[in-house]
Each structure stands twice: as C-alpha cells, then as structure tokens.
Design goal:
By secondary structure, the chain is an alpha/beta fold. The protein is about 40% helix and about 10% strand. The strands form two sheets. It has a five-stranded parallel beta sheet with strand order 3-4-5-6-7. A two-stranded parallel ribbon has the order 1-2.
C-alpha cells in the first residue's frame, strides 16, 4: 500500500501545505493512484480525512484496473465523499489506457460529468511506448468525457498537432505540468506552447507535481509561467481559471467569480 504521504524525506503534510500557501497557492488538486488492487477504498478514506484538515485541498479519487466493483468505489468517492474527479497513471499502474477492465470507469465518468486526469507523455522516461494511438482511440470512444491529458503527451506528440484535437473534442483539456518547464530545452517549443495557449488557454491547465515535480520551490513554477504565457488571460486561465471551471466553482468558496 502507498505510504500516507508521497513527500520528500522529513516533510509532513502540514509542512508541504505550508509551502504551497507561502508560494501563493489558494487551492490545489491532490492526486494519487493505487499501485495494487483492493486498496482504493482505504486510500479514499484517508484522502477524505486529509481534505477535511486542509480546506484548500481538492481531493481526486483513483482506481486500479484490478479493483472489484470499480463503479461502486467511484460512487462512494465521488458522490458520497465529494471528490472532484479521477486520476490514473497507466505507466506506473501498468495497464493499457484501453484496457477493457477500465470501461466501466470511463463510462461512469462520462455519464456523471466528472473529469478524468490521465498521465500521458514522457514515455521514454518510463521505459514505455508512447500512448499516442491509444489516446486517439480513447477520445473517439468517449467523446463526451471531460479528460485532461496530464503533460499533454509531450514530447511524444508535437505541440502543433493539438488544435485539431481541441476543435474536434470539446471535452479535451491539456495540462502543461513539467512540460512548461522543459520546453525551453527544445528549440521553438516554448513559442509553440505560447501560441497554443493564446488560442486555447481556456482548455489548458498548469500544475506542479509538487512535491515531486521538476521545479522547486513551487513559486519558481509561477515565475516560469509568467515568462512563457505573457498575456494575462492565458496566464490566469492556466494557473487557476480552467481548473476551477473544470472542477466546479462550488469547490472554491474563497474565490470570487469574475
């Protein structure tokens, strides 16, 4: 089973949340994924308890393909515990995005309108094949699902290819976590990302992967965002507005709807 908090050695949940607060974070999505079948419900109970201690924490659920009664697990986590959506990581959880065992999960989320966050991209880092074709088929099968492609399949798909997808799949969102930091190492990639955001920032999000991301402290991520997304609308959409619209304003009572 996962240990209680995926944190650097010597740092507690309270210390990590304090770091986010000091970096100017008002709310944050907290994500996990079970590594073994049968542990999702236990982690959901822990996650709900953690969220009750930190009002700025917006908890997401997850499931393992090997879980029994996945729909029941989601009903408990989303409808009863009030979690905002579901996160999965096919590479680390070691399953194919199109695994038929996950069909009830995707169908349930599509029917109920909850967002699904899927890790994509950085296939070489994980020693895996890119999931480009699987993502394409997934989008065709679930056109009504709100799906966030975490890391936007980078660098496995060219940034210039995304406009057609965003135009054809209204439930598709792109997350630029880590990608935004790393594009500066590749010629012209930063300009591509900036131009994409100029058109589609209302469908794009920026996260941190804190405490295990590529930029630390978290304040550095915001500094980098201001360098890449030079117009205020793009910056605000990526840093908070798209995420709030996706999860629902009712989860962010301290924010004022502009």
């Amino acid at each position: 089973m996962m240990r209680d908090f995926q944190a650097p050695s010597g740092e507690t949940a309270e210390e990590l949340v304090d770091h986010l607060r000091a970096s100017g974070v008002d709310y944050f999505f907290n994500l996990f994924y079970p590594l073994q079948p049968g542990e999702s419900r236990t982690i959901h109970q822990w996650h709900a308890q953690l969220a009750s201690s930190y009002p700025e924490l917006v908890p997401f659920a997850s499931v393992h393909p090997g879980d029994a009664d996945k729909t029941g697990i989601l009903q408990e986590a989303l409808d009863e515990l009030g979690m905002a959506g579901v996160k999965i990581h096919p590479y680390i959880q070691q399953f194919d995005l199109l695994d038929p065992r996950m069909t009830p999960v995707y169908s349930y989320l599509e029917q109920k309108g909850y967002p699904l966050l899927v890790h994509t991209g950085f296939a070489r880092f994980y020693g895996s094949e890119p999931m480009n074709s699987a993502v394409d088929e997934f989008l065709r099968r679930y056109p009504g699902l709100k799906v966030v492609l975490v890391h936007m399949l980078w660098p496995d798909r060219d940034i210039d290819g995304w406009p057609d997808y965003l135009d054809n799949y209204p439930g598709l969102y792109l997350d630029v976590t880590n990608t935004m930091v790393l594009v500066r190492k590749v010629p012209n990639e930063e300009n591509k990302l900036r131009n994409l955001a100029a058109r589609y920032s209302h469908r794009m999000l920026l996260g941190s992967d804190f405490p295990l991301g590529v930029a630390y402290p978290v304040a550095r991520i915001y500094e980098r965002a201001r360098e890449v997304f030079t117009d205020q609308t793009s910056l605000e959409n990526l840093c908070w507005r798209t995420a709030v619209n996706l999860a629902g304003w009712h989860r962010f009572p301290r924010l004022v709807r502009a």
